[in-house]
Amino acid sequence: MPVEEFVAGWISGAVGLVLGHPFDTVKVRLQTQSTYQGIVDCVVKTYRHESVLGFFKGMSFPIASVALVNSVLFGVYSNTLLALTATSHQERRAQPPSYTNIFIAGCTGGLLQAYCLAPFDLIKVRLQNQTEPRMQIASSMPRYRGPVHCAASILREEGPQGLFRGSWALVLRDTPTLGMYFVTYEGLCRQYTPEGQNPSSATVLVAGGFAGIASWITATPFDVIKSRMQMDGLKGRKYGGMLDCMASSFRQEGIGVFFKGMTLNSARAFPVNAATFLSYEYLLRLWR
Ligand SMILES: C[N+](C)(C)CCCC[C@H](N)C(=O)O
């Protein structure tokens, strides 16, 4: 099983994460807190109350974890394609796999990375939702002092299953949309690359960016439910499950609730995934 895709996925995931984390923090707050009037209000209040560091809350953990998750995603994707088509990453330029096989490989990678991602994503969302300023006074101490303390508190207060709260919504969010992610990327690369050649940097950037946008637009409804389920265990249980969360969110806030954060997801998706795919492609070419 070639390991270069796993290593390239790890490094490219870290590059994308740092670029996109501030967008992600604002998105998570808009999805789970009703105190903000919109994106600008959230950005201004976060900066005023917590300085620029407020946008990077909850990032230390994902740097290792999402990079690992990206490693699983790209590694499983590429090795599933190897199993389905008996072609390596480089051979696929000359023998392009079918979009069905690309979709299957992307869904397989999406399903497996979701299980790796679940506990890390839960901790990230819990930390991102702590709005106390850094230089807090005793009365407004945040509940969690950091990712490790957050994990230990969840284990103590909610049990091991607490670390997987929202994981079903995460699996449903990521599995089909990561199939689409890779189909979009490969389709755009083929569209703008002469047969049998490697795509140019510009093609990789544009294809990666639009693959990220397409994937996040379709993932946003389950992204909202996932974030709400992850916050649910904090102050007792508000939802009886994922379907109850969907139904009560719709009842209280209307259909628009399922598109909360879509603008931010899309704005973040282009640079993050353009950088992710560019670094992935170049790391693989360096490796050969
Ligand atoms: C499947 N879903 C849409 C959630 C993510 C797809 C892109 C994943 C990428 N690492 C990023 O952070 O944007």
UniProtKB/TrEMBL annotation:
Q: Pfam families from the entry?
A: Mito_carr (PF00153)
Question: In which ranges do the Solcar repeats occur?
Answer: 1-83, 97-191, 199-286
The membrane topology term of the UniProt record is: Multi-pass membrane protein
Per the record's keyword annotation, is Repeat included, yes or no? yes
Which keywords are on file for this protein? Membrane, Mitochondrion, Mitochondrion inner membrane, Repeat, Transmembrane, Transmembrane helix, Transport
Q: Name one GO cellular component term.
A: mitochondrial inner membrane
Q: Does the keyword Repeat apply?
A: yes
Q: Which GO molecular function entries does the Swiss-Prot or TrEMBL record give? A: transmembrane transporter activity
Q: Where in the cell is it found?
A: Mitochondrion inner membrane
Q: Which PANTHER family match?
A: MITOCHONDRIAL BASIC AMINO ACIDS TRANSPORTER-RELATED (PTHR45624), SOLUTE CARRIER FAMILY 25 MEMBER 45 (PTHR45624:SF6)
- Family as reported in the entry's similarity comment: Belongs to the mitochondrial carrier (TC 2.A.29) family.
Q: What is this protein called?
A: Solute carrier family 25 member 45
